[in-house]
Amino acid sequence: MAIEILMPALSPTMEEGTLAKWLVKEGDEVKSGDLIAEIETDKATMEFETVDEGIIGKILVAEGTEGVKVNTPICIIGEEGEEMSSASAAPAPKAEAAGVADTVAPAEAAATTSAAPAPAAKDGSRLFATPLARRIAKDKGLDLATIKGSGPHGRIIKADVENATAQPAAASAAAPLASSAVAVTGPSAQQVIKMYEGRKFEEIKLDGMRKIIASRLTEAKQTVPHFYLRRDIELDTLLKFRSQLNKTLEPRGVKLSVNDFIIKACALALQEIPEANAVWAGDHVLQMTASDVAVAVAIEGGLFTPVLQDAETKSLSALSAQMKDLASRARERKLAPHEYQGGSFAISNLGMFGIDNFDAIINPPHSGILAVGAGAKKPIVGADGEIKVATIMSTTLSVDHRVIDGAMGANLLNAIKANLENPMGMLA
User: Fold this and answer.
1) 55: β partners
2) If you ran DSSP here, which 8-state letter would residue 234 be given?
3) Per-residue confidence (pLDDT) for residue 152, from 0 to 100
4) What reaction gets catalysed by this protein (predicted)?
5) Whose CA is closest to 234, among 345, 395, 358?
6) Are residues 3 and 13 in contact, defined by beta-carbon separation less than 8 angstroms?
């Protein structure tokens, strides 16, 4: 019996991908576990293995095809000599040139996710959903008819219901209004192009990563109530201590960066202020036990935020080694989804680019992000009242007010400052 192989969802946020390369050809025999294709998601290029056995009877989506929707048939596997065809399968079209339609406004995305009716049986009387998804929906008071399924053939699965908990039914009705409000804030792609009629320019198509960044950060700025706290941090003690440690660690080939200390300082501060070690989950808050800290890494065309789990328990040298490995693989787009998803807090350090200070946008569902500027020599008034020169680093803590109030945020930033200005204490 011929089996359709569907475009897989290789990450929870994946809706479409590029079939970058076929590793098999028609007529090849495959077994369960064999790699058959390389698929480019919004974040990485990943190998896809089949769980079925048989002969590759027909390749339905050509190598290099972009914009292939999840659950679209991409090839057919069957037995030798078997007739292999698929009435439902058609090669996915090439993605259109980037425009306003490519960058879906958050409210529109929410409406698509939570308001689109799930596929029903031919008689229209039944929704396709897994038993677990039905149970979760019942517990959350959700109407399955308002949830779009991402499973095979549109079946509603656990992830669909869990994602919909942050979008209750009442929000569905409000989504079109929110969408309209967003639409009038900026001109359409055609209007912008017409504005520059007669001027020379190049249209650059948005790749999957840029679309996701645009969508998620627009959503974050529109839906997360940010507020900002700022502190200057004296680095001289830390820099001296770091220099001593690096001399000691040199035989082991370890070189600690200031960023390694910042990661450790934030991880310990989240343990000192445990209420701030939390994420927003729609109708409740999840207070985390471990300090899982994400760190922004710039790559060509975008950025990753790999997560260092249990950062409070790891030594500075372990954090340094793990961060170097994650950053290196991030730049090659070789991170697995579990390595850049999760966490409750993030760090964005632009100090190495000479930036004095800036305000970072929170990456939902995180409750905060620390923006780190460059350390620079500045005159300050010492504790004895005398003016002296010190290395000062400016930091800004962006906070989600739904999770963290002003006093709690201030305590968190003060704890981060105290850790960095007394670095030996972080090793105790």
Assistant:
1) 29, 78
2) E
3) 61
4) N(6)-[(R)-dihydrolipoyl]-L-lysyl-[protein] + acetyl-CoA = N(6)-[(R)-S(8)-acetyldihydrolipoyl]-L-lysyl-[protein] + CoA
5) 395
6) no
Distance in angstroms (rounded) separating the CA atoms of residues 161 and 155? 11
Would you say domain 225-427 falls under CATH 3.30.420.140?
A: no
Q: Are 115 and 175 in contact (CB under 8 A)?
A: yes
Residue 97 DSSP label: P
What CATH code would you report for 131-163? 4.10.320.10
Cβ proximity of 256 and 316 under 8 Å? yes
Residues of the chain with CATH 2.40.50.100: 3-78
Kindly report the CA angle at 220 between 326 and 204, in degrees rounded to 5? 70
Q: What is the pLDDT of residues 213-257, one digit of tens each?
A: 888 888 899 999 999 999 999 999 999 999 999 999 999 999 999
Kindly report the three-state secondary structure assignment for every residue of 340-378.
Answer: HCCCCEEEEECHHHCCCCCCCCCCCCECEEEEEEEEEEE
- Alpha carbon distance 305, 83 (integer Å): 47
CA separation for the pair 239, 393 (Å, rounded): 12
Catalytic one among 153, 226, 284, 401?
401
Q: Report the C-alpha gap between 160 and 150 in whole angstroms.
A: 7
Asked if 362 and 369 touch (Cβ cutoff 8 Å), the reply is: yes
- CATH 3.30.559.10 in the chain, residues? 225-427
Q: Which residues face 127 on adjacent strands? A: 120
The SS3 of residue 149 is coil
What number of H helices and E strands is found in the chain?
11, 18
- pTM, whole model, 2 decimals? 0.65
Residues 30, 54: Cα–Cα separation, whole Å: 6
Secondary structure of residue 277 in the 3-state scheme: coil
d(CA 91, CA 381): 68
At 60, list the tokens: 């339905």
**Where exactly does CATH 4.10.320.10 map onto the chain?**
131-163
Q: How far is CA 374 from CA 51, 227, 234, 380, 395, in A?
A: 50, 22, 12, 16, 9
Q: How many whole angstroms separate alpha carbon 24 and alpha carbon 59?
A: 9
Task: Output DSSP code: residue 120.
Answer: B
CATH topology for the 3-78 domain: OB fold (Dihydrolipoamide Acetyltransferase, E2P) (2.40.50)
Question: Tens digit of pLDDT for each residue in 338-379?
Answer: 899 999 999 999 999 999 999 999 999 999 999 999 999 999
- DSSP string for residues in 27-84: T-EE-TT-EEEEEE-SS-EEEEE-S--EEEEEE-S-TTEEEEETT-EEEEEE-TT---
401 is catalytic: yes
